[in-house]
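Tokens for chain A. Residues wanted.
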């Protein structure tokens, strides 16, 4: 029995389990723990592919398992976070919170497209599911922390609908034909990596100023910077 070929799949399963735990905490309303386990899942997601390449044990079943785990951790778990948050409001139409789960379906579609798209070796086409999950987890944590803020209090009745509109926008971004850069470096020099270094350096003040919710600002900035870069390339 070749044990090493099972190591990447074991790490992938740890990602999946992290997503299941994140979903549990989301449903009971402990959003910061849901976000924590999404982050833990993202760490496992980063290492499973790396380990598979190092051990030269990549396999079709690993690819399929990875997509399944990612949809749980980065699709279903953030949908559950948004669902639970909207449920805290007194909404006239009880079906409204369930619209949050559309994000899980679009995440699955984005992952399926990624598996078949050969253009995404050095970058992404559309918003990556881990980025989307981190955005929603950190945003909802921030909204809950700022719940007593007077400026947000005036928007209290509108917040669930604004969150849903944001959810629909992120669903579009998941499958949009928008090139987005990946933090992969062929060389460490400034030339050719300007956008990546600008992004990394700008993340520091956002985290320092906004704390956990700074992750949401970072993901939003990532999307904006990707769009600006794409338009600049097309113009040139």
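Reply:
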């Amino acid at each position: 029995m070749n044990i090493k070929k099972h190591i990447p799949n074991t790490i992938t399963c740890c990602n999946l389990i992290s997503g299941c735990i994140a979903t549990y905490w989301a449903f009971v309303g402990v959003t910061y723990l849901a976000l924590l386990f999404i982050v833990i899942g993202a760490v496992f997601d980063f290492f499973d592919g790396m380990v598979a390449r190092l051990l030269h044990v990549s396999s079709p079943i690993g690819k399929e398992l990875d997509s399944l785990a990612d949809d749980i951790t980065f699709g279903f778990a953030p949908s559950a976070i948004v669902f639970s948050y909207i449920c805290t409001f007194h909404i006239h139409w009880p079906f409204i919170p369930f619209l949050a789960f559309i994000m899980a379906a679009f995440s699955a579609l984005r992952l399926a497209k990624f598996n078949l798209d050969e253009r995404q070796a050095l970058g992404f086409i559309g918003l990556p599911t881990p980025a989307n999950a981190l955005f929603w987890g950190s945003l909802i944590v921030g909204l809950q922390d700022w719940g007593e803020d007077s400026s947000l209090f005036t928007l209290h009745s509108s917040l669930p609908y604004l969150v849903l509109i944001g959810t629909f926008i992120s669903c579009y971004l998941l499958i949009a034909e928008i090139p987005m850069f990946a933090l992969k470096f062929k060389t460490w020099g400034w030339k050719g990596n300007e956008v990546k270094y600008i992004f990394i350096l700008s993340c520091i003040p956002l985290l320092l100023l906004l704390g956990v919710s700074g992750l949401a600002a970072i993901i939003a900035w990532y999307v904006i910077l990707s769009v600006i870069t794409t338009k600049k390339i097309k113009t040139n």
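The mean pLDDT is 86. The CA atoms of residues 134 and 215 lie 7 Å apart.
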